[in-house]
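Reviewers of the previous submission asked for a worked example of the structure-prediction workflow described in the proposal, so we include one complete record here. The input consisted solely of the amino acid sequence. No template or homolog information was supplied to the procedure at any stage.
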Amino acid sequence: MTHKSTLRLMLIGLVAAIGIGILTYSVRVAPERRSLERLVQECTKPNPFDQFDPPSSEPQGKDSPKLVCDPQVLQSLGGATGIQRELVDVQGRIDNIKEDAAGIALVVLLLFSLPYLWCFLLRRIKELRDVLAGRESA
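From that input alone, the workflow returned the following structure tokens.
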């Protein structure tokens, strides 16, 4: 294999890895992201049953407790239930899909880069041999 063909193969691998990332995002992550946004909107809606709660003795100001609806915060807190559990599950699926896609893209890129890396290594070994033998490299 020539230097040009191995470089071309590596570039094809790079394009394939980028394609895997784009395809994964558009097919698997985007629908999950829309589902997550819908759940966040549902979580942040005011509860219609709050109007039936007896008034508390404490004033309802800025410090009144609110439902946490940020999936990343909920993941770090743990112990979520109800809609918060759904938020954590969807965010976990999104994270897993991203990790899987990144791993697959990296493996594809590495496999397509192996011929180039092998030829590169052989050229460096040849140059080192020529220097040690006292010959001029062509």
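The CA atoms of residues 119 and 125 lie 10 Å apart. We consider this example representative of the routine output the project will generate in years two and three.
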